[in-house]
Amino acid sequence: MKTKNVMIVGVGGQGSLLASKLLGHLLMSQGYDVKVSEVHGMSQRGGSVVTYVRYGDAVYSPVIDKGEADYIVSFEALEAARWMAYLKEGGVIVTNTQQIDPMPVITGAMKYPEDVIGKMKAAGINVDALDCLKLAEEAGSSKAVNVVLLGRLSHHFDIDEAAWMASLEAIVPSRFLEMNKKAFELGKNA
Asked: Which of 2, 17, 118, 142 has the maximum number of C-beta atoms within 10 A of its C-beta?
């Protein structure tokens, strides 16, 4: 199988590293060679966090270049727009519709752009957008946005749901497992 590329982008503290660990575990369980690379920006200060997940028969580098991502999974709308140059033609952005103000907006130096998702769609980008925060809260915790996003991403993969659940069971601490299973289902079925 030709190498496939997934970028997971967000703001520090949103759970993107757990999402990449879950996705990497899932793909390895399916027999793929998997490389995961974490690129931390100012993650502890609310800055951008990017994780690359590459999988296929043989993967030699963990890095994804511009125009190579089959999927971009974004925890925040503006982060999706910031990284869309990395999406390949025919690729998909799976994004949370939540807006988190970056530092220039917080300080008043800039305004948050209007209708970010609408502008991406108008540019011909295939965007699968969902209010993941609302669904995560429905599952029991706003911190489950990452698993809601993976549930949504599962629509774009030909991998049985039982395998996704097995990876959740292997990675998520038992006390949070049922909530995360619910979050996955809510994202998958939204």
From this structure: 17
